[in-house]
Amino acid sequence: MSLADAITLSRLAVVPGLVVAAVTGATTWFTGLVAFALLTDAIDGRVARWRGTAGPRGA
pLDDT tens, position by position, for the chain (59 residues)? Predict the structure, then answer.
């Protein structure tokens, strides 16, 4: 697994936290987790291209 793939998969780890934060009204946690997801979405393609691991799934 490449570094870019690991960054992408890390977003899956925050999904349960997003759901819990949304249901319980924990807006600070929700905002932080959304920010994390947006940040990792922005950098995973750049990392893949930088490391030469870009493939047909993205980047």
Answer: 889 889 999 999 999 999 999 999 999 999 999 999 999 999 998 998 899 888 777 65
Q: Which residue has the tokens 């992408």?
A: 8
Say which residue the tokens 């319980």 belong to: 24
Tokens of 23: 């249901």
Alpha-carbon gap, residue 25 to 38, rounded angstroms:
20
From CA 59, how far away is CA 37, in angstroms rounded?
Answer: 16
Annotated domain spans of the chain: 3-51
